[in-house]
Amino acid sequence: MGFTKQIRFIHKWLGLISGLIVFIVSVTGCIFCFHDEIKDITRKEWRIVEPQDKPFLLPSVLQEKAKLIAPKNKASMVSYYGKNRSAIVYTFTDTENEYLYFNPYTGKYLKTENPKTDFFIIVEYIHLYLLLPDYIGKHIIGGATIIFILLVISGLIQWWPKRKSDIKRSFTVKWSAKWRRVNYDWHNTSGFYISIIAVIIAITGLTFTYEWVGDGIYKTFNFGGDKALETKAPTIDTTKFKQNNLLAVDNAFVETMRLQPKAEMFYVMFPQNKGDIINTGAYPHTLRFDHQSNYYFHPSDGKLIQSDPYDKKSLGLQVVEMNYGIHTGQILDLPGKIIAFIVSLVAAALPVTGFIIWFGRRKKAKKTKI
User: Fold this and answer.
1) Would you say 75 and 88 are in contact if contact means Cβ atoms under 8 Å apart?
2) What is the pLDDT of residues 4-26, one digit of tens each?
3) CB 290 within 8 A of CB 331
4) Of the candidates 84, 251, 336, 368, which lies 20 to 30 Å from 131 by C-alpha distance?
5) Separation of CA 104 from chain center
6) What tens digit of pLDDT does each residue of 106-147 get?
């Protein structure tokens, strides 16, 4: 068997093995691309607020208001998503999570969301785990994603023009031909045009499944180094520790806003156990989870322990923390999301058009034998 036939054989069987999973992952990725825009339209009443010329309410105030709404729940985090957006108190019990929306200026309660019944979170869990237990589903998704990358590479090898006369044909679809030829041309040309971006989306997606992928990206851009060491949170001496103090959480939030006065989005994580530090974060743009700055504060008095602003992080860590934005296209705002949507849509079509090619050849081979 020659090299080209070997590549075709590998491409065919890898496609048949992973096709359905690639289709599901790609379609759910398409749906999730514009989830923020869709939710802003369909859930405007509790996601959008009138901006006011006054500071946000402190985290402790919102936590206390959340207790009145859901007294059995514990608060894990408060997020402020922007001047014209509601703040969310993330709460949990032993059995479920609940997200409580508040006006960040007045403290008015707006809505409680349960992620188990949220359409877009269900779509996200299909995308990540196929709604299977995470320790099973993530490996199925991860395996199919690795196969998809191999499919793109093997597809490009088959697509590559052998002669100068093939160049024009390789870049276009002969729309006037019969539908099977159109399908064949579409499979080849669309796969070529999306190949680079599709591989980038696939690799960034693998970081959600395999930690070694993120470590590899970190080492590649830093020419070595240890990501775990750079991202290690500070510790405190619990023998000299006073009890957790809500005032410390408020101090941490105020200090974070002072350190990042131009940031639009903030979060504050509440310490859950004795000795847990307060972790805060700031982002330059609302609803964009890249270019983040992180700060760590003492839970008894809210004094700054460690500062990790974005511009002081290594290039490798900056790229790793841009991973979600790159994967979803969010890093380029709406144009990036449109690109991610189109690439995901075409990627979803590849298993379908590929199966049609395989089925047609199989059917033709049977007729030839007869």
Assistant:
1) no
2) 889 989 999 999 999 999 999 99
3) yes
4) 336
5) 26
6) 999 999 999 999 999 999 999 999 999 999 999 999 999 999
The DSSP bridge partners found for residue 297 are 278, 304
Amino acid 145 reads T
Rg (CA), the chain: 25
- Say how far apart CA 216 and CA 291 lie, in whole Å: 20
Which single residue is written with the structure tokens 């403290």?
107
Are the C-beta atoms of residues 297 and 303 closer than 8 Å to each other? yes
**Token output for 367:** 């007729």
Cα(44)–Cα(275) distance, integer angstroms: 39
- Spatial CB neighbours of 47, under 8 Å, sequence gap ≥ 6: 39, 40, 85, 86, 101
**Both tokens assigned to 73:** 């729940």
Q: In what order do the strands lie in the sheet with 304-308?
A: 109-113, 97-102, 87-92, 74-80, 265-269, 278-283, 293-297, 304-308
Identify the residue whose tokens are 């093997």: 154
Quickly tell me which residue has 């402790």 as its tokens.
Answer: 60
Q: How far is CA 276 from CA 238, 244, 267, 270, 271, in A?
A: 9, 8, 16, 9, 5
Q: What tokens appear for 140 in the block?
A: 């199925």
Beta bridge partners of 28: none
Nearest partner of 54 among 109, 104, 110, judged by Cα: 104
Q: Which residues, listed in sequence order, are joined to residue 92 by a DSSP beta bridge?
A: 74, 97
pTM: 0.91
Two tokens, residue 96: 């479920």
Tokens of 328: 């979803």
Q: Which of 138-152, 176-190, 233-247 has the lowest average pLDDT?
A: 233-247
